Amino acid sequence: MDTYFFIALLRLVDVLVALYIWTLLAYIISSWLIIFRIINPYQPVVRAILGSLSAVHDPILLPFRRLQYRLIPNMGGLDLSPIVTLILAQYFIGPLLKDIIILIAKTFSG
Hints:
The protein is mostly helical. It has 3 helices and no strands. It is elongated and about 55 Å long. The mean pLDDT is about 90.
């Protein structure tokens, strides 16, 4: 396999992680807007957007939610799983991908 292929593939994954972070922020903000009754979740457009955000993020957030409810059983309805996921994606996965790209570029260059 070509080195440029691996670098391009890792950059694509890096872009997808960045896109995931931005959509996760939209998911968090939209949930706050619903709680404070700023947006109506029963409107068709809002429901479609929230449904797509939920379909993307809930499968990844579910294990963190289960872990949170096992470790801290009563948080009064506060869900910390999006924050944990955001921290993992922002500060661990993103920099790790960038380090792998740099390592591959240095290893296989000239």
